[in-house]
Amino acid sequence: MTTNPIDAAASTAAAPTTSTTTTSPTTSTTAGAATAPRPLPPRRAGFALATMFLGSFSLVTAEFLPPGVLTPVALDLEVSEGVVGLSVSVTALTALLTALGLGALFPRTDRRTLLVVLALGAVVSNVLVAVAPSIGVLMAARLLLGAALGGYWSMSLVIATQLVPADRVGRAMMVVNAGTTVATVAGVPLGVILSAAAGWRVVFVAAAVVTVVTAVAMRVALPPVAPTPGIGWSATGRALRSPGVGLGLVAIVAVIGGHFAGYTYVRPALSLLPGSDVGTIAVLLALFGVGGLVGNFAIGALVDRHLSVLLLTVPVAIGAGVAAVGLSAAVPLLVYPAVVVWGAAFGGVLNVVQVWITRMMPGQVEAGSGLVVAAFQTAIILGSAVGGLGVDSVGVGWTYLVAAVAAVAGGVLVRSTLSRRYSDGVAPV
To answer: Quick one: which of 82, 90, 93, 79 has its CA closest to 133?
Structure first.
């Protein structure tokens, strides 16, 4: 296989460089770098990563339960499906703000303690949703969940670097990210089934119970995690001014926004299939999740060497899947391969974006990570909001086609940032 010149150059530039180090029994300090803690023993690190997997699973399941129970929630609270879909948007709003500002608000707080507190906040959120008498209470509860989500994702990469050696951080994040895809494989489809059997409110009670287990597990398994240098608004501003980063973040918003404009309203879309019922929808959502799980590992294994190719092909696959699902009412056989392709592409897109930001900002990964989380949350807000307006005004089909175009256009733009980076004479290292 011929390696793309940009990827080859990036791989070469990514090789470790010689630096002056001073070591002690517990730390290694590199010129210009922060003191790095000793990684955990492998078995303990594996247990700690398992709890972070559980954290991403429980939080993402709670985040995206509304699309799976959209119709019954709307009927129970006497609002439109588009309005209920906005519960994903309000969650993302506080997640965005938390991702950017949590480190600055608590610059000295042990990150393990912060994660446990945020998980307990998610528990309260799920309980409030379960007993919500109105859409207003539900929306307020989802704001609290957003704070937990934003804090969790903005710190996950930093925490992973303190659990494992530097050459295993990518594998560690693959484990953490797998919780997201397993949430779509098991969490959301099981939520649909449980909702049909016992009601949507029971689904959120179950989510609260899982999140309690998560909070306890993280408190037991994670070591104390000290804050890292280079956090706060000034570091974020410097990161945003890096060549190509601003354009790339806009492109990411387009790709992820296109996904969520479709996925937030996937139940109404799948309900248009001839003969569709709750069982059919649960199967299709499970297929989406299986595709996501495969995509997470397959794309994660390829992205280090083939970033430039995947920056384009993954968004195009998302767009193709969204468009095919939007057209599936007219061509029902399209929907089964479409949800698998869509799920696989979305399952791997986070790995692609994480590698992209490390190539674009090798010396400011923590600040870059916060910007990526903020871009994702912005995309969720805009995608679910625009999708809701589209579903309520022009219908599912047209909404899905516009979402597909946005995803493909974003892929073209984000791919161009690597070329711009190299044309400016800056090679990611």
So the answer is: 79
Rounded Cα–Cα distance for residues 361 and 238 (Å): 10
Longest distance between any two alpha carbons in the chain, whole Å: 68
CA distance 195 to 216: 26
| 185 and 70 in a common domain | yes
Tens of pLDDT, residues 254-270: 999 999 999 888 878 88
What's this model's pTM, rounded to 2 decimal places? 0.72
Does the structure show a pLDDT above 50 at 299? Answer: yes
The pLDDT value recorded for residue 217 is: 95
Whether 215 and 263 share a structural domain: no
**CB neighbour list of residue 25: distance below 8 Å, 6 or more residues apart:** none
Q: How far apart are CA 247 and CA 209, in angstroms?
A: 41
**Which range, of 21-35, 204-218, 351-365, 406-420, averages the lowest pLDDT?**
21-35
Residue 176: CATH number of its domain: 1.20.1250.20
**Cβ density class 346-360: b for 16+ within 10 Å, e for less:** bbbbbbbbbbbbbbb
Domain total for the chain?
2
Of the candidate ranges 3-7, 38-42, 131-135, the one whose mean pLDDT is the lowest? 3-7
Determine how β-strand 27-30 pairs with β-strand 36-37: antiparallel
E strand spans, 88-185: none
- The answer to whether residues 58 and 122 touch, using CB atoms and an 8 Å cutoff, is yes
Provide the 10 A C-beta neighbour count for residue 21.
10
Q: How far is CA 27 from CA 36, 360, 399, in A?
A: 6, 27, 53
- Name the more confident of 114 and 329: 114
State the average pLDDT over residues 14-18: 40
Contact criterion met (CB below 8 Å) for 135 and 66? no
Radius of gyration of the chain (CA): 21
